[in-house]
Amino acid sequence: MRVLGVDPGLTRCGLGVVDGGTGRTVRAVAVDVVRTSPDAELSVRLLGISDAVERWMDRYRPEAVAVERVFAQHNVRTAMGTAQAGGVVALAAARRGLPVVFHTPSEVKAAVTGSGRADKAQVTGMVMRLLNLEVKPHPADAADALALAICHLWREPMRVRLAEAEARAAEIAKNHKARLAAAARQAKTQGAAR
């Protein structure tokens, strides 16, 4: 499976494409950072991000898109810009019928390093190691985009299996309740007949 990982941001938006193989094997395909000028209008900045993301989707043909979820930031303006950039990415993916999954920073850190509290240097180091990269992706947004793609490749199959198991359990519970209700009605009918 090929995944486009996106670390959204207005000034720097990290993009990374990773292919997943059997087991936990991963291979880097491409990585870059889209930059927009803080002096430009918001709409122009979002258009620039959208255009770049759409070019990447057309060029690399991902099967899914993993975007970092805005979890909590002290700076409301930064959080809003990050969320807007993530929304533009989700829209571009939806236009192509691609599934989009939002992962929290702690989910990404835990998937890649084993600790949800890992720092940027630890994440970058593990991304380099997992993808056999000789050069550190720079800036950190690039490494984060690759980490998002890896996280998705490793977590999504488990999430899908869990959702399927929950759906099966709900169906079994529904059928069981229906059988209990039918048995109760039958017992009531038989009791009334006596």
TrEMBL record:
Binding site for Mg(2+) 2: E68
Localization (cell): Cytoplasm
Catalysis performed (reactions): Endonucleolytic cleavage at a junction such as a reciprocal single-stranded crossover between two homologous DNA duplexes (Holliday junction)
A single Gene Ontology CC term: Holliday junction resolvase complex
PROSITE patterns attached to this UniProt entry: RUVC (PS01321)
Similarity comment: family membership: Belongs to the RuvC family.
Function: The RuvA-RuvB-RuvC complex processes Holliday junction (HJ) DNA during genetic recombination and DNA repair. Endonuclease that resolves HJ intermediates. Cleaves cruciform DNA by making single-stranded nicks across the HJ at symmetrical positions within the homologous arms, yielding a 5'-phosphate and a 3'-hydroxyl group; requires a central core of homology in the junction. The consensus cleavage sequence is 5'-(A/T)TT(C/G)-3'. Cleavage occurs on the 3'-side of the TT dinucleotide at the point of strand exchange.
Protein name (database record): Crossover junction endodeoxyribonuclease RuvC
Source organism (scientific name): Amycolatopsis regifaucium
GN (gene name): ruvC
